[in-house]
Design brief:
about 200 residues
């Protein structure tokens, strides 16, 4: 069974003072980091680009927000990606999580054998923008939420049959603060640039 990857790259990124997906980290854009991370697992790579035009990595497919949901955040981007995806198994990945290990994405995909959605949680914090989902049930629940004016990701994931990988499942990926380091500001970018953890 094939896998589609949906990279979320459509946020406004006001704290990054510019195009977050195109910011450089260790010689590659954040978007390229995400593309390179999912490439070994994905048969197609889709970039949810929101309302902007982005220069995409070679072979990636653009999925802009649909007009009815334009600018409604990551959930609209996920739906755009799912609507474009050719496969039932989906990796959802925000472009600002450059340190996620390939093995962790594979583990979440493996959980789709008996559920519809899988994501991680650590220190009481869920990580909904790094997830594996089944396209058909995810599309249905997201479409319903957006039509109701609700644009939060977690209620949708919780509304699906799901598995959560907690800290006991993630011991080999410690330190989790680094694994799930989220790059929202130029200071975050500088901190990652100086780290020894390669994506």
């Amino acid at each position: 069974m094939g896998v589609s990857a949906v990279i979320l790259a459509g946020g406004r990124a006001t704290r990054m003072q510019g195009e977050k997906p195109l910011r450089l980290l260790k010689g590659r854009t954040l978007l390229q980091h995400s593309n390179d991370l999912v490439a070994p697992l994905a048969d197609e790579i889709i970039v949810a680009s929101g309302t902007r035009n982005l220069d995409l990595p070679d072979g990636a497919i653009s999925a802009p927000d649909s007009p009815g949901f334009a600018g409604q955040g990551p959930l609209a981007g996920i739906l755009a990606g799912l609507n474009t995806a050719s496969h039932e198994q989906i990796i959802v990945l925000a472009c600002d999580l450059p340190n996620l290990p390939l093995a962790l994405l594979q583990r979440m995909l493996d959980r789709l054998a008996d559920t519809s959605c899988c994501w991680c949680e650590h220190s009481g914090h869920p990580e909904p923008l790094a997830a594996a989902v089944r396209k058909t049930p995810a599309k249905a629940i997201i479409d319903e939420a957006l039509k109701a004016g609700q644009n939060k990701v977690m209620p949708c994931w919780l509304g699906l049959p799901h598995r959560i990988l907690g800290e006991a499942d993630l011991t080999e990926f410690q330190p989790l603060q680094q694994t799930f380091a989220n790059i929202n500001t130029l200071q975050d970018l500088e901190a990652q640039e100086g780290s020894n953890n390669e994506a």
